[in-house]
Amino acid sequence: MSEKRRLRLMAEQRRSALPADQHLLKSELMCERAIEVLKDVVEQEPKQAVLSYIPFRSEPKLDTLMKWCWDREIPLAVPRTDVRHRRLTFYLIKSMDQLEASGAWGLREPGPVCQPLGEADQIGCILVPGLAFDHEGGRLGYGGGYYDRYLQTLQASHGCLPLTLALAFDLQIVPQVPMEEHDYRVDKIITESTTIP
């Protein structure tokens, strides 16, 4: 078994073992810490979009953070997954009611009423999902490479990347994530107890 596969299994098991009340409480704490970071990024330029994802399985809940964006009219976009071409396209959403369970793997994705994020739209922050992270910003995703490809495309077209932010439980932090040349690190990792770096 590869080191990446071993780490994925371990992280998924740890995260899934969290009792529901702890999962919710820790998710809330993460969202509060993330909001403090976002205040410095997007409240300065309220037209800058926050790119998020819709939590799946045992990922931290992001409801508090998403509601904070909507309450301040900060544009919020979430992805549709194109499995055939292995890419993400982000769509603006104004509520959870605009999602439908039609995506790959049973993911909830933006419905037909949602507008795609335009090429000219400014992005202030990208929330990046993952299974394990290390103190150097190393990220272990689910193995499809969707976010790495999206970040690569964004960097190629804009010349730089906005702030990349990961929300993860303390138990998802590992000594070292095996990284390959095409893997992107995240700028900050926010857990229920700390911010890295």
Please specify the SSE layout and strand pairing.
Elements: H1 3-16, H2 20-42, E1 49-51, H3 63-71, E2 76-82, E3 87-92, E4 99-100, E5 109-110, E6 123-127, E7 132-133, E8 139-140, H4 146-158, E9 163-167, E10 188-190, E11 195-196
Helix pairs in contact: 2-3
Gist of the model:
With 197 residues, this protein is an alpha/beta fold. Helices cover 30% and strands 20% of the residues. The chain has helices spanning 3-16, 20-42, 63-71, 146-158; strands at 49-51, 76-82, 87-92, 99-100, 109-110, 123-127, 132-133, 139-140, 163-167, 188-190, 195-196.
Domains counted in the coordinates: how many? Answer: 1
Arithmetic mean of pLDDT: 91
Strand order of the largest sheet: 3-2-1-6-9-10-11
Radius of gyration: 16 Å
Helix content: 25-40%
The low-pLDDT segments are none
Written description of the protein model:
By secondary structure, this protein is an alpha/beta fold. The chain has a single domain, classed as 3-Layer(aba) Sandwich (Rossmann fold), CATH 3.40.50. Helix content is 30%, strand content 20%. The protein has four helices and eleven strands; from the N terminus they run ααβαβββββββαβββ. The strands form three sheets. The chain has a seven-stranded mixed beta sheet with strand order 3-2-1-6-9-10-11, with helices on both faces. The protein has a two-stranded antiparallel ribbon with strand order 4-5. Strand 2 and strand 3 form a beta hairpin. Helix 2 runs parallel beside helix 3. The model has no long low-confidence stretch (mean pLDDT 91).
